[in-house]
Structure to design on (1013 residues):
């Protein structure tokens, strides 16, 4: 499409029925109470000139360009700050108003460079537009030096890697400041000085890069001039066409306008109609797309017979033939179950569906698993057991109606920043916040945000805490008896279980390290504070009791009636863009698409008839089981789609041993990643800018991913899967990704009504989408749970076997940082490294002092399975005895030290609890390239 | 393998720990149901063989559960 310019109504929409009737320039219009005259005018088809107003910010009334006349009202009020009243008669255009506006514009232009023809915003400048709209023909004061004192010599701040701040072009409209406050919620920007000296500043005397700015781009988007401008626009010029697509980073799934000049991507601009993000973005989605054109991209297939040989570039035909024949040879030699595949949460639903179909219909087994195994598999298990559906209950919009927000083991401002902004907005409006996390994440206390309670629990004690919260609810008479009686089952047994004294806050305090009264107060707030919503992340799932904890949270929500309406619910914050989708598509070895067990004959029958081949009725191997079986010798070949298991999976020594034992490892990826070092075939993958398909985000929202360019590799990834299947003797063919979605819809009840056509029509769809809910289901379990009655589950607290010891006295927990994503394969190949060039170990001042460690020292981090080296950062964000790191860089290899411990139900690794020792390395490491992680037993 | 314990034994013991509060027979049924639902046949086979070999490193409820596993084809 041509460049999509979204209408700007000037001020935000107001909720409610349109009951206020007025006329604007003679045109009648009805609007909800609280709507501004400016917005009403726009809805009546009348554009009122404006500069400081835009419809994602509350009215400010500073530019005075939007003045209007209203019958019965003195003077010329600003239409942006004037609310509509019934019967109002508004005039927006006459000679008096025109003169006033030209006067305003003269003042602006007298202090603005007149370099429009060479300005980067030429053609996309609201100041330029308003000069035209108001009919400005002369500036009586002159411009620049001749006009007297001015701001035209102010320097440009180019410190941010992605945008410039050209202060000389600033009109001090405060849109950037307000965007940072209201939209992003960081409050990094301010207007410094008074009167003529007023200017935008990023903190006190520091550059944008040095400031608290998180580079979300909201200020750039809000700026009406070239003052805040993407460097890419400065370099390449204004884009000329738009492709609507979906971000490929976290599970928020933001909609973007990919804006191009010809086939060159100029910038990514968040889409106002995007269901998940509603026009907001973060530093990753907005700016960090350069990896797609990075020279490290592999664009041609490569093969080798052994991993000690160099790669050989081959044709697609040869690569596919090599792969297919080796897979069949291995099956012939070692059995049907000796091969399998891992699907990716970074690829589309259609690509994932194709891989699991290849495994089931062509490999003839169920050895397919997904990287969600190592993140949210306990969510699938726990929510299915209790609610009957392996997915979160709400849409993101729901948080706008929450009164109490309980964040457990999730760090939204770093990992899900766009949703975090929405959550912070609600908290600023008055919602109460409870944070349960060993680490003092930013949400606990940041500008205008403060948690009512931060339960700073010891890592590994989640279940004890959630049981204690439920204990308070049950024993203090806070149960929603009506909800429980009508909607749930197995309550009585659970009530008896949870009321036992061992679950009391007093008993748990000593286990979790949280004062009993604090637990009680938090429980009371959750149960009695109005709509209470739970948001959780990998700090819940990546434990030996991840599944138990998910069920514990579901119990708490059901007991208090916080399910089935806006503002409540149990909401997993999914790590990668398509975690939900990859799970939905049948990637688990015991479930066909739609979470239906392989032992279900009726479900198998659907696929057996369609695919013309029998489906095994026994579960296949999960990822950790694949590794175990590879080492044991019964699993010989693995196809890995778009994941870097050698870096992301725990206990690196074990993973290396497993990958090294395979006779064939096929990696489909953008880059020669850590896993590819063990591979025999590398099939180049497509970036999200080349993909055609869908992603499903954390709120079950299916979004279209539209290609802005043809695949740089020459093939879509699902085409490659089909060709491997064909080469293995199975007739697998699709004409398009849309056809794959049609097959998904035909075979999966929750996707019954989904098609590319409908997605194009509606923008996005939250599954279930069926005859009952033809436009999707934003809130689940409204009248009854998917399984009928919500089921209470007894959640016994079983401490992890990973304990601190004399040899390993500290507990390491791991997490993420805003600027980097997962294993960093994408973000490390962008300018985001400016914010996080290496992983560091956060260590408490006390633990550092007793070890003689100071900030910036290089330290050895060792556990019972491995040792690595990182730089230390002294931080009191964690309690004494707990340290923290990220896993975005392979050089530090955080997973060298994580262990084989896993969730009892799903095998999700226990990344969040590892007993470690930290030792100072006296001499700094001289050469970064020689810093290699060491696994116990020596490096390979 | 962790400390010489085969993975399927470690996993079986971890599952058993979750059901330790239940009567042994109930616990064994719950453990077996879980394994039947999510374990690959070769893991079940290995556990059955492990019990048959007289191994003593298995939680009693897990050992009881092994007897209820669907014998892989």
């Amino acid at each position: 499409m041509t460049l999509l310019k979204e209408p700007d109504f000037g001020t935000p929409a107001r909720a409610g029925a349109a009951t206020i009737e007025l006329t604007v320039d003679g045109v009648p219009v009805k609007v909800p109470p609280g709507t501004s005259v400016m917005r009403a005018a726009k809805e009546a088809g009348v554009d009122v000139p404006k500069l400081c107003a835009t419809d994602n910010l509350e009215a400010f009334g500073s530019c005075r360009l939007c003045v209007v006349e209203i019958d019965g009202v003195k003077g010329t009020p600003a239409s942006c700050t004037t609310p509509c009243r019934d019967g109002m008669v508004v005039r927006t255009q006459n000679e008096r108003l025109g003169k006033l506006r030209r006067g305003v514009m003269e003042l602006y232009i007298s202090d603005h460079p007149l370099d429009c023809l060479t300005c980067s915003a030429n053609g996309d400048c609201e100041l330029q537009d308003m000069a035209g709209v108001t009919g400005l023909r002369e500036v009586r004061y002159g411009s620049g030096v001749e006009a007297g004192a001015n701001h035209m010599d102010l320097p440009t701040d180019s410190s941010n890697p992605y945008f410039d701040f050209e202060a000389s072009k600033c009109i001090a409209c405060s849109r950037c400041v307000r965007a940072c406050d209201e939209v992003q919620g960081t409050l990094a920007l301010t207007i410094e000085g008074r009167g003529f000296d007023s200017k935008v500043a990023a903190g006190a005397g520091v550059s944008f890069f040095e400031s608290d700015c998180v580079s979300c781009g909201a200020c750039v988007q809000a700026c009406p001039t070239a003052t805040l401008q993407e460097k890419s626009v400065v370099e390449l010029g204004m884009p000329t066409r738009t492709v609507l697509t979906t971000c490929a980073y976290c599970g928020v799934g933001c909609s973007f306008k990919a804006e191009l000049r010809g086939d060159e991507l100029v910038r990514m601009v968040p889409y106002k109609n995007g269901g998940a993000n509603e026009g907001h973005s973060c530093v990753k989605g907005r700016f960090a797309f350069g990896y797609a054109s990075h020279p490290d991209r592999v664009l041609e297939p490569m093969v080798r017979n052994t991993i000690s040989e160099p790669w050989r570039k081959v044709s697609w035909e040869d690569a596919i033939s090599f792969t297919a024949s080796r897979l069949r040879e291995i099956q012939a030699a070692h059995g049907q179950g000796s091969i399998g595949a891992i699907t990716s949460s970074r690829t589309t639903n259609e690509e994932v569906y194709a891989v699991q179909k290849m495994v089931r219909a062509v490999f003839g087994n169920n050895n397919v698993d997904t990287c969600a195994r190592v993140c949210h598999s306990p969510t699938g298990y726990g929510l299915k057991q209790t609610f009957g559906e392996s997915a979160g209950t709400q849409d993101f919009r729901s948080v706008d109606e929450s009164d109490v927000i309980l964040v457990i083991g999730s760090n939204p401002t770093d990992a899900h920043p766009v949703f975090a902004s929405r959550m912070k907005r609600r908290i600023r409006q008055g919602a109460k916040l409870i944070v349960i996390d060993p680490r003092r994440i930013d949400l606990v206390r940041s500008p205008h945000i403060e948690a009512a309670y931060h339960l700073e629990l010891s890592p590994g004690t989640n279940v004890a805490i959630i049981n204690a919260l439920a204990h308070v609810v049950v024993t203090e008479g806070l149960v929603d008896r009506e909800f429980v009686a009508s909607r749930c089952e197995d309550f009585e047994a659970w009530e008896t279980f949870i009321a036992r004294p061992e679950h009391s806050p007093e008993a748990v305090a000593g286990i979790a390290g949280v004062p009993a009264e604090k637990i009680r107060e938090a429980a009371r707030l959750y149960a009695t504070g109005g709509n209470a919503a739970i948001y959780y992340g990998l700090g819940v799932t990546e434990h030996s009791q991840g599944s138990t904890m998910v069920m514990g949270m579901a119990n708490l929500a059901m007991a208090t009636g916080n399910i089935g309406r806006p503002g409540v619910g149990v909401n997993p914050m999914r790590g990668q863009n398509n975690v939900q989708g990859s799970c939905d598509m049948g990637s688990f070895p015991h479930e066909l698409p739609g979470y239906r067990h392989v032992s279900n004959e009726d479900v198998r029958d659907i696929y057996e008839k369609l695919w013309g081949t029998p489906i095994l009725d026994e579960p296949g191997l999960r990822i950790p089981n694949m590794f175990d079986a590879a080492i044991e010798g019964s699993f010989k070949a693995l196809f890995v789609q778009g994941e870097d298991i050698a870096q992301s999976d725990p206990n690196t020594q074990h993973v290396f041993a497993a990958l090294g034992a395979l006779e064939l490892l096929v990696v489909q990826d953008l880059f020669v990643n850590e896993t590819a070092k063990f591979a025999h075939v590398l099939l180049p993958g497509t970036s999200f800018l080349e993909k055609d398909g869908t992603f499903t985000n954390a709120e079950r929202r299916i979004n279209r991913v539209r290609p802005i360019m043809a695949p740089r590799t020459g093939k879509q990834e699902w085409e490659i899967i089909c060709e491997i299947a064909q080469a293995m003797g199975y007739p697998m063919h699709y004409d398009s990704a849309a056809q794959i979605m049609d097959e998904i819809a035909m075979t999966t009840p929750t996707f019954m009504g989904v098609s590319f056509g409908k997605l194009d029509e509606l923008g996005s769809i939250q599954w279930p989408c069926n005859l009952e809910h033809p436009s999707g289901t934003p809130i689940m379990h409204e009248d009854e749970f998917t399984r009928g009655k919500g089921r209470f589950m007894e959640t016994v607290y079983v401490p992890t076997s990973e304990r601190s010891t004399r040899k390993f006295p500290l507990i390491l927990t791991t997490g993420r940082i805003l600027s980097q994503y997962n294993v960093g394969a994408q973000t490390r190949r962008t300018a985001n490294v400016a914010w996080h060039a290496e992983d560091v170990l956060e260590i408490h001042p006390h633990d550092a002092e007793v070890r003689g460690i100071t900030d910036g020292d290089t330290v050895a981090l060792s556990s019972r399975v491995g040792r690595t080296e990182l730089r230390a950062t002294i931080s009191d964000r964690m309690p004494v005895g707990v340290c923290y790191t990220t896993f975005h860089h392979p050089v530090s290899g955080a997973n060298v030290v994580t262990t084989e411990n896993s969730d009892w139900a799903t095998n999700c690794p226990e990344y969040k609890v590892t007993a470690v020792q930290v030792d100072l390395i006296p001499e700094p490491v001289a050469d970064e390239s020689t810093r290699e992680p060491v696994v116990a037993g020596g490096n390979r | 393998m962790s400390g010489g314990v085969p993975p399927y034994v470690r996993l079986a013991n971890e599952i058993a720990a979750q059901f330790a509060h239940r009567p042994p027979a109930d616990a064994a049924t719950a453990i077996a149901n879980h394994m039947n639902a999510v374990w690959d046949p070769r893991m079940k086979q290995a556990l059955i063989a492990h019990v048959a070999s007289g191994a003593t490193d298995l939680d009693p409820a897990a050992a009881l559960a092994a007897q209820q596993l669907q014998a892989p084809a």
